[in-house]
UniProtKB/TrEMBL annotation, chain B:
Transmembrane segments: none annotated. This is Glycosyltransferase family 4 protein. CDD domains: GT4_PimA-like. The keyword Cell division does not apply. It comes from Streptomyces guryensis.
Length: 180, 389
């Protein structure tokens, strides 16, 4: 009788440890998503700032300036629900303005343009990177959260179900002169 | 930035991953970052100042061959101490799925972890069995890097999630500046790789050789690499054997001069390649490249624009393409030119900057989180080191 009782206790303890370990795993994943999201925000903001700077610099022709300014401004000011759309539109605007290599050259030749072009190149490269890392973390957390043990024992607590950040982040051809 | 890099394979055994890590570490050190590499090594092997030994790797049967791996209590303790002493801003693990230092580091560390997946092995049975354990460790990785689009695809299929593609780096100028050697020039075909490793494809090339020599008797095949030379030429008629010259293992300098000299570089690999660094090196040295049409090779060669491709394992196709190229100096000059331009994207200046971008992206987010966590207790230091210290 006591033996059975001890075994039951051991089993319960083991289950408890396993669940607590899983909860720790989930917590770590949520922290990773938060970090990835913060990094993504920083990169998106940086990209919009450089775009806006270029739009108001007078290096671009007036039409291109207006298009770029409009898109960059919208990306920075938009509400959270509309963010993915606004950022995608900024990507499209950047692609339209910097479709030709000559336009990038013109920016480089302007005073201080070398630095601005470099910053923009880096920004359009890092946005897809940060987004991929974010969505990778979201995917991992979702896979774990859909598991029975997590749902039955409510291990995720009140943390909102993680959402991927979907947007068009294709960089302009003239700025993405590399393998992939 | 304080960067910790984990190498899963013995530092004293030459290999692609080891060279990649060496070049990467030296690139970062030149930029002024602090780098420490943790690698398996015998305690008496001389190591560069930035490498920390994780103890001797033990040969064990794994995944169909004998692999030299690091695991167990002592290795885990060394990993922990290295993480604790290093206080790294970011830890970069190579080959995190091999049951060696990479996986141990994944277990022991928390904080920003970057991982590079080099090989694109099909999922092994061991990996399926250990899937949930592996998954828990791999979840800690904040950023995954695959060395090619092909490697990324296998990664997505087998482990889920996603990765950014950053190719392996090459010091392009080192190869471009090498001095050609006259005795290796004049209708020469070059091959570099292990002679006794059939996947490197030397047998395919040997089968194609009689046809090439029938039409161009002055042609020569130069082979650089370890292995049994007599066994390699066994399939060849005795009178053709003198047309094959074995150079044995060559130094880095000689390899560059070799690639700079040959009239055609052939890569007949039949499989098991996820990147193809040798093609990049050959193009850097300005050698016209003819390679088998493996996925990874086709991608490095820009789908055939920067070098020619032939149907994998088809020695007739190889002979035909080699003859056409050897007889057409203009086409070779064109390939040289295209290859040299194409290869710039694999230069360390580009690749290193991309990897640094990944580090910065990952640490930017993590720093914010660590600050928020400080109020609740443990900071970044104990997160990266270990809570129990």
């Amino acid at each position: 009788m006591t033996a059975t009782l001890i075994w039951i206790l051991v089993a319960l303890l083991a289950i408890g440890l396993y669940l607590s370990w899983t909860a720790g795993r989930l917590d770590r994943l949520h922290a990773r998503i938060d970090a990835a999201r913060a990094a993504l925000d920083a990169q998106l903001l940086r990209r919009a700032s450089v775009a806006q700077e270029l739009a108001t610099s007078g290096v671009l022709d007036p039409a291109a300036s207006i298009v770029l300014y409009e898109a960059a401004h919208a990306a920075r000011q938009v509400e959270e629900e509309q963010r993915e759309v606004a950022e995608s539109e900024l990507s499209q605007a950047l692609r339209a303005v910097f479709a030709e290599a000559q336009q990038v050259e013109a920016v480089r030749e302007a005073p201080g343009g070398e630095a601005a072009a470099g910053e923009l190149t880096e920004a359009v490269r890092r946005v897809p990177m940060a987004r991929r890392f974010h969505n990778d973390a979201v995917g991992a957390a979702r896979r774990l959260r859909e598991h029975r043990k997590v749902r039955w024992f409510r291990l995720a607590g009140h943390a909102p179900f993680p959402m991927a950040f979907e947007m068009d982040d294709e960089p302009p051809a003239a700025l993405a002169d590399r393998a992939v | 930035m304080r960067i910790g890099i984990v190498c899963p394979y013995s530092w004293d055994v030459p290999g692609g991953v080891q060279f990649h890590i060496r070049d990467l570490a030296e690139y970062f050190i030149r930029l002024g970052h602090e780098v420490s590499v943790l690698a398996p090594a015998d305690d008496d092997t001389p190591l560069p100042p930035y490498v920390v030994s994780a103890g001797r790797a033990v040969p064990v049967p794994y995944n169909g061959s004998v692999a030299r791996l690091n695991f167990g209590f002592l290795s885990a303790a060394r990993v922990r101490r290295w993480l604790h002493d290093g206080e790294f801003d970011v830890v970069h693990i190579h080959e995190p799925t091999s049951p060696s230092l990479g996986l141990l580091t994944c277990w022991a560390a928390s904080g920003p972890i970057v991982a590079t997946f080099h090989t694109s092995n099909p999922r092994s049975r061991a990996m399926i069995a250990a899937y949930s354990i592996l998954q828990a460790a791999l979840e800690k990785i904040s950023a995954r890097i695959a060395v090619s689009e092909y490697a990324r695809r296998t990664l997505v299929e087998h482990l889920g999630g996603d990765a950014v593609v950053i190719p392996n780096g090459v010091d392009v100028d080192f190869f471009a500046r090498a001095e050609p050697k006259e005795e290796w020039q004049g209708d020469t075909i070059g091959f570099i790789g292990r002679i006794d490793e059939p996947r490197k494809g030397l047998p395919v090339l040997m089968k194609a050789l009689p046809r090439i020599l029938a039409e161009r008797p002055q042609a020569r095949l130069l082979v650089a690499g370890r292995g049994d030379e007599e066994e390699a030429v066994e399939s060849l008629p005795a009178e053709l054997r003198p047309r094959v010259q074995f150079l044995g293992m060559v130094s880095d300098e000689d390899k560059a001069r070799f690639l700079r000299s040959v009239d055609l570089y052939v890569a007949p690999n039949t499989g098991g390649e996820s990147f193809g660094i040798i093609l990049v090196e050959a193009m850097s040295a300005g050698a016209p490249v003819l390679a088998s049409d493996l996925d990874a090779f086709a991608q490095v060669l820009d789908q055939g624009a920067a070098g020619e491709l032939f149907a994998n394992e088809d020695s007739d196709a190889l002979a035909e393409a080699a003859l056409r190229l050897l007889g057409d100096p203009e086409r070779r000059a064109e390939l040289r030119e295209r290859g040299s331009a194409h290869v710039r994207r694999f230069d360390w200046s580009t690749v290193g900057a991309d990897i640094l971008s990944v580090y910065e992206t990952v640490t930017a987010g993590a720093a914010a989180v660590a600050a928020a966590e400080d109020e609740r207790g443990p900071g970044l230091r104990s997160r990266l080191g270990l809570a129990r210290d």
